[in-house]
């Protein structure tokens, strides 16, 4: 009952994880039987405590460890031993950004885990981000933003790309003014240090998706 998700296609990973939730968890009990952990913050004791928690009114619990390539060494060693004989009531999913099986931890774990390899995320840019905003898809837009930041794109370039794509679009003057107001507020929050750049951009995306009209 150990899964290993490899690759950078976040959307496909989330779709696969959603299918696991639908298969093993009752929607009204999900909050009691689902834990989402982040590798960099995860301690060995913390993981062990989560694994030993019993399912609530169901047969299985689901634990997802995100960014598993960043696990601490002692946690890695524990997981490698755990994967040989996992607890029957727990489904453990490790989500790793990298695909290379040459990585010793991934190579060893893949011998015992059900390994799913996802394609590298398609190349995205500010125009892709703008399109997802036009479609009022904040979930997809936030994933694109996350990928852009991971790839090292600077916040000011993202803002500039959004503005440029709007100038080529067909938004009404009123909506354009609203968009620009949100964009300028975001730019100010970043430059003054009032908000973390990633958080400021996420706030902008959510605001823009609330303003935009879906295209048909």
Characterization of the model:
With 216 residues, this protein is of the alpha/beta class. The chain folds into 2 domains: 2-117, P-loop containing nucleotide triphosphate hydrolases (Rossmann fold); 126-211, Zinc Finger, Delta Prime, domain 3, CATH 1.20.272. Helix content is 53%, strand content 12%. It has helices at residues 10-24, 30-33, 44-52, 73-84, 104-109, 126-134, 138-150, 155-167, 173-191, 197-211, and strands at residues 2-6, 34-38, 61-66, 90-96, 114-117. A 5-stranded parallel beta sheet has the order 2-3-4-1-5. Helix 4 (73-84) links the parallel strand 3 (61-66) and strand 4 (90-96). Helix 6 runs antiparallel to helix 7 (138-150), helix 8 runs antiparallel to helix 9 (173-191) and helix 9 packs antiparallel against helix 10. The N and C termini lie far apart (42 Å).
Total beta strand runs: 5
The number of helical segments is 10
Number of domains: 2
Q: Could you say what the CATH topology of the largest domain is called?
A: Rossmann fold
Strand order of the largest sheet: 2-3-4-1-5
Oligomeric state of the chains in view = single chain
Radius of gyration from CA coordinates: 20 Å
What share of residues are in beta strands? 5-15%
Roughly how much helix do the residues carry, as a percent range?
40-55%
Euclidean distance between termini CA atoms: 42 Å
Task: Provide mean pLDDT, rounded.
Answer: 88
Instruction: Profile the largest sheet.
Output: 5 strands, parallel
Q: Give the helix/strand class.
A: alpha/beta
CATH class of the largest domain: Alpha Beta
Low-confidence stretches: 212-216
CATH homologous superfamily of the largest domain, by name? Answer: P-loop containing nucleotide triphosphate hydrolases
